[in-house]
Amino acid sequence: MTTPRDPSPSRRVRANGDGTVYQRKDGRWEAAGYVLAPGNTRKRVRVYGTTRTEALTKLTESIAASNRGVPVPSAQGSVSVYLTYWLEAVAVHQLRENTHTRYTACVNQYLVPGLGKKKLAKLTAKDVRTWLNQLRTTCQCCARGIDARRDQARCCAAGTCCSKRLSPLTLAYIHSVLKSALEHAVREEEITRNVARNVRTGTPRPRRFEPLTVDEARQFLTAGRSDRLHALYELALRTGLRKGELLGLQWEDLDLSVGTASIRRTLQRTQTGGLTALPTKTRASERRVALPSECIHSLKEHREAQEAEREAAAEGWKGRSLVFATPTGGPIDPANLNRHFRALLDRARLRRIRFHDLRHSTATLLLEQGVELIVIKELLGHAHIGVTASVYAHVRLRLQRDAIDLLGRTLHNSTGPDASGDPPSCALAVR
Question: CB burial class (10 A; 0-12, 13-18, 19+) of residue 30?
Fold first, then answer.
C-alpha cells in the first residue's frame, strides 16, 4: 500500500477563512484572504513577502484586525490628494474663513511638499517624525526661496544662509493641522489609526507678553481721556474684552442702567466678505460681563459724541448701531485700530505692546489683587479654566512666592508666645 506524500509547504491545507498562500513565479510569496471593509462589507486583500512566513504573518494580522471589527483601509491615493479633499469638502464647512485660510497655507507650504507624495494608507509615525525633524532643522529661507524672490539678494541666495528656522509654536501648529486631517480620515474609515498622534513634538513655550504695570495702566488711561476712542480703551483694559469683541459691540448689547454688556459677536476682516460680524470665538466666549462705573460713565459720554457725529454726517451716516465706529458710522478696521493704539502709546510715552496685551494686563492685575481664577476665566471668556491657568502660570508662581514669603515672615516673628503668655489678639489675613 502506497503512503501519500506530505503536501508541499506552498500547498498546505488551511482552515476555512484563513486565506490562501502560495509562491509566485517571480519568487515572492503572496497571501490572500477576506477582511472587513468600510460599510460592513467584505473585501479580498493580497499581501506579499519574501518568505512564506512573512506573507502569512501579514495576512494573519489583517484577518485578526478584521475579527476585532477594524475595517481595512480604503485609501488608495496620496496624502496630497486627501488633504486637498479635506480642505475643500470638510474643513471649509467646519472652520472660520480666516482659520481655513491659515490651514490652507500650512498644507500648501509644509504638508504637501513634505508628505504629499506618500500613500495615505502607508503613512507611518516614523514618516511624520522624520519630516518634522527635517522641518525643525531646515532653513525656510533656503527651502522656500524667500531670498531668491527679492529684487536684491541679501542672505541665502547671496551665499550667506540666514538660518531662518521654524519656531516651536509653528511646528506644533503644523503638527496639529496634520492630526486634524488624519483624524477625519479615521472617522471616514479611510485609515485605521491616526499615526500623527503617536508623534510627540514637545510642549512649546507660550508666547511671552509684557502686561502693563499698575502705574503704566494709570498712565495709559490718563493719556486716553482726550482720545476719540477713550471708551474703547478703558473698556479693553478694565474688562479684558478681545479686540474683535469690542469692535463688534452694538448698543443693543449694552444695558447701561444695570451695568452689563452682552458679548455675542466679533468683528473680523475676511478675504471674501471684508469686515464681517461673526459668532464669538467659542461658546464660552458668548457671555455677559459686568461694567465698572468708570466704563458706564465713559460709554454715556461716547454715545453723546457719536450722536453729534451722526448729525454732522447727515446723509453720509452708514446707519449701523455699532458702539465703536468711524466718524461716518462704519465699522473700524482692526488694522487701523492697531495703528491708532500705537500712536496713543507714543503720546503716553509708554513702551510698545500689542493691543491684545491689554487683555493680558487685565488678567494679570486681577490676579495680583487676589481675584479667584474662576472669576477671571469667566470674565475673559476662556473655554476651560486650564487655559487661564496655563497662560498666567508665571503670575500665579509669583503670587505663590509672595504667599510663602509672607508665611516665612509670620513664622519668623512668631517663634513662641509673647512674654505675657496670652495668645495673639489677631492673626494675619493671608489670601
Answer: middle
What distance in Å separates the CA atoms of residue 232 and residue 211, rounded to the nearest whole number? 18
pTM above 0.70, yes or no: no
At 311-356, the pLDDT tens digits run 998 888 886 789 999 998 899 999 999 999 999 999 999 999 999 9
* 120, amino acid identity: L
CA distances from 408 to 396, 405, 414, 415, 429 (A): 18, 5, 10, 11, 14
The torsion region of residue 40 among left (phi > 0), alpha (psi -120 to 50) and beta comes to left
Residue 78 contacts residue 119 (beta carbons within 8 Å): yes
Sheet of strand 29-37: strand arrangement: 20-23, 29-37, 41-49
260 forms bridges with which residues in the sheet?
255, 290
The residue written with cell numbers 519630516 in the block is 131
Q: Please report the sign of the dihedral spanned by the C-alpha atoms of residue 177, residue 183, residue 187, residue 190.
A: positive
